[in-house]
Records
---
Amino acid sequence: MSFLAKKKCEGVLGATGSVGQRFILLLADHPFLVLHKIGASSRSAGKKYKDAVKWKQSVPMSDELGELVIQACKATEFSDCDLVFSGLDSDVAGDIGIFTSNLLLSFSIMQLCEMYVFVIDQYTEIEFAKAEIPIFSNAKNYRKHPLVPLVVPTVNPSHLEIIPHQRRDLGMKKGFIVCNSNCAVIGIVIPLAALQAKFGPVEEIEVFTEQAISGAGYPGVPSLDIVDNVIPFISGEEDKLENEAQKILGSIDGTAFQEQDGLRIGATCTRVGVTDGHMAFVSLRFKNRPSPSPEQVTEALREYQSEVHKLGAYSAPKQAIRVFNEPDRPQPRLDRNISNGYTVSVGRIRSGNGGHFDIRYACLSHNTVIGAAGSSILNAEIAAIKGYL
Amino acid sequence: MSFLAKKKCEGVLGATGSVGQRFILLLADHPFLVLHKIGASSRSAGKKYKDAVKWKQSVPMSDELGELVIQACKATEFSDCDLVFSGLDSDVAGDIGIFTSNLLLSFSIMQLCEMYVFVIDQYTEIEFAKAEIPIFSNAKNYRKHPLVPLVVPTVNPSHLEIIPHQRRDLGMKKGFIVCNSNCAVIGIVIPLAALQAKFGPVEEIEVFTEQAISGAGYPGVPSLDIVDNVIPFISGEEDKLENEAQKILGSIDGTAFQEQDGLRIGATCTRVGVTDGHMAFVSLRFKNRPSPSPEQVTEALREYQSEVHKLGAYSAPKQAIRVFNEPDRPQPRLDRNISNGYTVSVGRIRSGNGGHFDIRYACLSHNTVIGAAGSSILNAEIAAIKGYL
Amino acid sequence: MSFLAKKKCEGVLGATGSVGQRFILLLADHPFLVLHKIGASSRSAGKKYKDAVKWKQSVPMSDELGELVIQACKATEFSDCDLVFSGLDSDVAGDIGIFTSNLLLSFSIMQLCEMYVFVIDQYTEIEFAKAEIPIFSNAKNYRKHPLVPLVVPTVNPSHLEIIPHQRRDLGMKKGFIVCNSNCAVIGIVIPLAALQAKFGPVEEIEVFTEQAISGAGYPGVPSLDIVDNVIPFISGEEDKLENEAQKILGSIDGTAFQEQDGLRIGATCTRVGVTDGHMAFVSLRFKNRPSPSPEQVTEALREYQSEVHKLGAYSAPKQAIRVFNEPDRPQPRLDRNISNGYTVSVGRIRSGNGGHFDIRYACLSHNTVIGAAGSSILNAEIAAIKGYL
Amino acid sequence: MSFLAKKKCEGVLGATGSVGQRFILLLADHPFLVLHKIGASSRSAGKKYKDAVKWKQSVPMSDELGELVIQACKATEFSDCDLVFSGLDSDVAGDIGIFTSNLLLSFSIMQLCEMYVFVIDQYTEIEFAKAEIPIFSNAKNYRKHPLVPLVVPTVNPSHLEIIPHQRRDLGMKKGFIVCNSNCAVIGIVIPLAALQAKFGPVEEIEVFTEQAISGAGYPGVPSLDIVDNVIPFISGEEDKLENEAQKILGSIDGTAFQEQDGLRIGATCTRVGVTDGHMAFVSLRFKNRPSPSPEQVTEALREYQSEVHKLGAYSAPKQAIRVFNEPDRPQPRLDRNISNGYTVSVGRIRSGNGGHFDIRYACLSHNTVIGAAGSSILNAEIAAIKGYL
């Protein structure tokens, strides 16, 4: 394909954070996306990457990467990039408002500096777009914007069709902004899309999560809070779980998104001592009666093929969903790396036994791959195939 | 009170197991229950306790205890005991039927020996009763028996009223058998009892658990399964959660129990790397409309006083339920030892936001204290106060 | 004893930190030391304790404690206290000098504020003494001061004899300052004292530690650094291990200390995912030939009685040292709470097999009890018995 | 090279164990070693691999592998293999003798069956050799045999020169047996070889280890022993550490090995909650005076090139040793996978400060790659290059 012939230079914003580190890892051997520039807070700008980052990946950083010099996250610094990935994570920053001053004081200076940078940068992500640099964002700021597609690549790549309208509206020719969803939402919405495609709308979901510590960044969760313990709360997370899926699972109607109507989600989010991989336990009720059996659900998940497979995107996993029959799977340590973290695993599919819910199952997603950086990369590949890049 | 004046000699069956160890810890300083004999599998009989047990408690075993000689678990060996506590745990044994031969092979010989002993002993628990030795059981075998009370001490001590009928039916004068519920059920049913007492029947519950490794005994969960991991399945556990509460929350009507009608429970049970303390996350729907607000639920839980408090039982906690306002509590490591593990903690009380469920909350219970041994001890204290002992 | 008859009002400085929290726990039921005032950084001053502290103990804080109002750590605020315990921990603060600016930025604002307070407060600890308030310090600032006793209560209580000279020198009548050693040093020095008392001087020690995360305070060690990991380095710790024991094990000669000559210590310190309890693995060489056998070493440790036992100090453990014969003990989770954390456990005593070292063993100490707050409390009890308080 | 042109069919014995699983993972993409047959205990023989194994690797098993049928571990079943790798681990089996009956009972039936198989199989490994099937063993049984090379591939590949003599002695034409060392020994001996090559003999070593749970197999270490805990003892391990290095570091003199004389090793082995990666902390004394400086040691480790690099073995890491300057590295989670686990990492190189030891450092090795299966594979590659295969 022609887009493969042409290498694209890309930049990574927020390159020292945990999502930024994952971007860099995933792009290391990419056939046509070539890491060209890295950006971080102005505090780190001018330093070599190896001197500014606390690298916490189990794959060592390459020597070349370590020598890269960090730029400030300004559009002018990235004007020679064909596109930019942003790991600037407003999921942390956005929560500032609800912190008591006491809690705020427990943030590290680094976190606070980044927050400040975020408060600026997350709203300047759009500045990259306006400067005609396409940007793929992991922050939450534009997720609900009526002209910004919120794309989970194995679910709703068609939402990229809004890009021409977005460009028109904001006066851009080449630039645009595409958003990722929250890491926990992404894992949940993929099986949901498969089930709705086959059995019609889901009416109500009760979801419970066990989320990995890498989701909180570094230094993130103190060890005294997680050794011999779980934390039954993640600030702001339940709200995202209850409200982002409706846009992703909704439709695009010419120039506007239509959120899925009548989909109610109730969420409980907890933190457990797992490095990577969010577990989600889902109970759901379909609208149509009779509802499908566990066997039918299993088959539908197993057979699910999303548009991204047909498009032939390089990073697309063979299976968007891997279904387990073993009663005790999926498990984070064993299954998070299936298809390098691009596949979501589902298991424990069982009947609701005549209660309010029709079906229960467990699913696992790699929170920094398909739940963050990997989704952005796949979105970029799709955008390239569709001619937006 | 007169029963306080009279010391009772008690025996502990299954004394080398994790529930048995907890019995011994809790009884160490008891004012009128005096440890007299300990029983374990025939393999351990005749050995000193210190030579037969793998003591895994964070409180050291006393020298006196270490020197106690283990008896076989036969009624004849315990005929000089006023009562017997049984930590024989058929929760493990009972699952044998569903194991594949491959899984079975992964059990230790010790576990299998115990299982065999269990298969015998759990059905011989009733032999202790018939031999006129009152027995307080943690096994599941008699929980559903129509003449055996299934008692959570801070919920339904009135169910002990069945004892005279049980004695009549089985031809006993002093003997009887009283059962505990499953460790996870106990933690859930206490707040539920408080809410139903105030707001009328609950119609449906969706419950999700994060259970401690001590619940699986020793050696129990292999470390390779729990470091950097969670296990999304506990064999047989969900079934107990879905089916035991109805009897506990039901009524006693003269000579028979009446299970609570129309209470549907859907359960998902997971294992996490916590030593002690089961977390349960509950979403529930009341029958009566309008349903209570989170504030009303909070107040009802806070004010809950069960019969056991009025009776003045020695081990009864001041509060059956401790309510937290902090958004990130209760947590296992910080809160499992409130009132020495006899209190259940509840937090994160919040509205169902107009969905199927009215209320959501998190609760924490110490799985080997109020979830097992402590419940039996409180049950014995109540039985003594009520004159059955 | 007369000192028992008279209650002493005491204050705790650094009350919100992890050593401060442990002070408060240990003093909760103390027969004659009554918690009167609590101090913390000026940022917390004026707040209720429950609103300023992140309580991380497995025993809940009492309601009374929660309502106590925090004072600034100034001598004027504590003038009505008979003595003051200081949990101000310069072990953290003191390391500032070696941090790169990058590392420094990873400290939380709370930590940095405390550091700043420390930088002030640790050097103002002496101000309390000068204001005639006896102070027991956990900080490192005065440990090497020629007029300040560095006392491990089960080792060298006689070093308190310097107090009159200290008072004379600094112009105080009632005030004085007594220091604790570093938490890891304390655990090592107790068995060492027992062995030297019996077999004469030790010439060389190679020590390796596995230290608990509570030793780094809160938030302290990030969970991403300790889940499925160990950290082979603790900043500044090895230096303390190599240099503090010589003063503790030295003698007091009229008005001056004489450090133990010719005792060389080589140390390697690591951090592991244990909440409380430092393990130390010691290989040592005695000066005298022939060296004692493992059996002789075992007996000497078992029989060790320090002066504190003869003095009848309230918190003194029955045994300063508990010796294990089991090959796999002591272990942190099982043994750290022996005698409420005031006893040090030793096991794995074995021969050096003809190499440079004569003997190897493992020891375990509760790092915030005997390793910090508990030592200060025992030191205060001794000071009271000896008439300095 | 010619040996690359010719594919070799290989078999893996003990294929269901943790070393066996690692063999299979490492051989999955091997250019000329093709997995042909897998063997396990007679209990598993005849089953599909996926039905017999508890796969605990973070990389999923392939579908093809899952369908492979397990053979009994008899030479006749593997007669069509060009070579055989054995993951039969007598490190476990060999310890039977020292277990008390009580401890023995805590082993799973699976473990005991395997032990029984081991007791047979480990002594039948030689039967494979006699049946003319070259065998690379991880068991300890033949490590000390005077005609069996104990080879760490980046240290002493020249020891394979004994093969002709071994063949002569045992009457074999093509068959032979080559042994791996213990997983902890391998990690220690590689830096040691580099240092001795440059600075002459080491006289004494004090080594302390923090070993991963995967080293104990599955189910292995119970989680109740490792959560919030460390275990200060690994049965039989210290003995291997103190006695295997001398043969590896010794010379081959025509037809016999000469162990390194005068190398004394003192070892302390502990188990920590890390999945993979053994840490070893080494203090050592050179024979020659003056001893090298830390800088010289660093340089010698960094420049070390072993014979295996010159031979061009396929799996040989670019660097046998990776040296870290960062004070807190290497760490298991971050560094165990360098060069896919074939490289040993060294850090914290520092002076002995005038004590008995000249130098201290920390090293990390992946216990199931370079510490077990990977070493065997490299040994096989070397044997092929040298014409023994």
Note: The first helix of chain D runs from residue 2 to 5.
---
Amino acid sequence: MGIVAQKFGGTSVGDATKIQRAARRAIRTQLMGNDVIMVVSAMGKTTDHLVDLAAQISHDPPKREMDMLLTTGEQVSISLMAMAIHEAGHEAISFTGGQVGMITDAYHTKARIQRVDTDRLKEHLKAGKIVIVAGFQGVTEEGAITTLGRGGSDTTAVALAAAVQADVCEIYTDVDGVYTTDPRIVPEAHKVDQVTYDEMLELAALGAGVMHSRAIEFGSKYSVPIHVRSSLTDVPGTMIMHETAGMEDVVVRGVALKRDLAAVVLIGVPNEPGMASKVFGQIAEQNIVVDDIIQSIYEDGKRANVGFTVASSDLSEAKALGDRLSREFGFRGVEVDEGVAKVSIVGIGMRSHTGVAAKMFDALYAADINIEHISTSEIVVSCVVRQEDGEKALKALHTTFGLDKNQGNEG
Amino acid sequence: MGIVAQKFGGTSVGDATKIQRAARRAIRTQLMGNDVIMVVSAMGKTTDHLVDLAAQISHDPPKREMDMLLTTGEQVSISLMAMAIHEAGHEAISFTGGQVGMITDAYHTKARIQRVDTDRLKEHLKAGKIVIVAGFQGVTEEGAITTLGRGGSDTTAVALAAAVQADVCEIYTDVDGVYTTDPRIVPEAHKVDQVTYDEMLELAALGAGVMHSRAIEFGSKYSVPIHVRSSLTDVPGTMIMHETAGMEDVVVRGVALKRDLAAVVLIGVPNEPGMASKVFGQIAEQNIVVDDIIQSIYEDGKRANVGFTVASSDLSEAKALGDRLSREFGFRGVEVDEGVAKVSIVGIGMRSHTGVAAKMFDALYAADINIEHISTSEIVVSCVVRQEDGEKALKALHTTFGLDKNQGNEG
């Protein structure tokens, strides 16, 4: 008796059979008395195929046109999903991002949602229809088609769930929930039943890969319970939610590895007020996501080395920007280190436990892994290590913090 | 020094190489001092592939969702075309039908254009960009995505050309112009240099297949010269235009065959005032295109048999409607004949020549073909024949009216 948003990723709508299965799930949810919003991604390898087509024509296609191209993938999915629901004898209507009122800024290929107009959506829900929305896409105020970047369909689903105050946003995927760490690297990883938005945000940001950060942020901000679960079974997955009593009992909820990082160091930056603001302002303007910032001062405080880590995919853009800033503001140079990774432990429980960081450093030392840099926040401790040490570090921490299956931790 | 609209059909944008070739042609046209609007169809077999996908899911998909699905094909093409032009160092921008202001009614799968908002188009032409528009598609006032039906991209191109008062609308295709008849059936057919809108309308309506009627109607109404030509060469094709001096000298411009016709006869229709209006009003409401109407009265004028021919693809819908009308208005029954074809001769010259129809009947008689029905208009004489006689009739008429190659007629 409420509103349920259901998001089906590319593997969950990969062919006609899977689309029909997703359709049946939505119908079942509706028959249980709920209004149902479906958000679907492009079918399986569609996006790859479209990217290939573009690559045959251009080495550096305009981003606006890439968005025009890629959004067709989701448009195909929504129409087929609507057909599947009709074929099963139920009412459905499909909408593109633009049609449903998903208004974004104009940063093509990684646009941000500005607002969601829900009038049309609510009208059709009220009429008893399952409303199917193309994930990943939006439209600017001027009507240009945009995409929300990686994991954008999750963001679409949670944003719509927030906008209509849905009771839950279900994320259907090919895994059955959120794990203590990546089970492909650590076979001892196990599913957790609950995780807080903050923990999940850290895990997502650190590369857990199940959901995109922005979707979790939306969920947290608007208190949308997010249920990450398998499209193949009815087994409950993992609830992402605000903290509840008892959740603090687990000190470390999960450990995460961010593998593809690169460090950029601006050498000899004049240590003047406003310099950091200028540098990171320009980086932000180019929508480069900075992972960590490390600044050290020398020459009696006149100069600083300003380092930051970015995703390897953003490195060439970050390097080019660094070079430009270097000329503009008189830095002494730009250095790049491509071979780093970051391993982190995450848990709201560590707020009330001491010695967690020390235990982590001990574990890495015992595994003969050198720590290049340490950063901490309230619920995270992270260590930057050489890329080749990443997996070993992850395994050591998973065991150290009692997360291995049958260690009796949770779930 | 003008505005040129260029339409590239599916075979002209079938792969990356062909898209690049079309892009170069548009760029060349722009470099010659023209503003260029490109209208593109879906790549090669894309539409078939999408139709297959739908068929895997539904036997009778909602038309609105078919439009949602099929329009993705053109959206892929426009983005790739824009990339190709950018890659060649020129400016371009792509628009979906909705974005460019192609407003239609809500008859999904065969919508009609209501109006074209050209502000955005003109703005970008003024800025020196090649404007690329998705053919075949539009959007209702409410924002629902529609398609214009078969040949819709031609209609898009001519409608845009009309809206911006383009100097010419070039239709690029895999044939090099309009022929005296279908050269696949009559190898002696030859290309004509000029044809009037009226002649072309009749030829198109009669199945010549090069262009869709609606596009030609638009061209005629707004006096847009239409140049049908090959995408592979620079050889001039056929100009479709208003009548000029000398064009009347050719008595028969072309002969045409409409193969896939079916006749529906409403038996025993009460011959009351307004009955025809009711019957054909309802047929029109369902957007069934009636080819010919044949009415004969009997029982002292109290009853009539009302026959009409439709495309075979519309037969089941027409039959169902006939049955419903039959119950509603007390007809005696509905009869169907699936096996007919229509062969026609077309030419503005026949207005000023006598004996043209008689010559046609003679030719069919000499070829031992029975004529089931005759209809005439100012520039057309048509005979309904058995479907199996269609091609033989076409060949006989092509020869009789001096259209065979090397008969010295035209071109």
Note: Chain B touches chain A through 38 residues (CB under 8 Å).
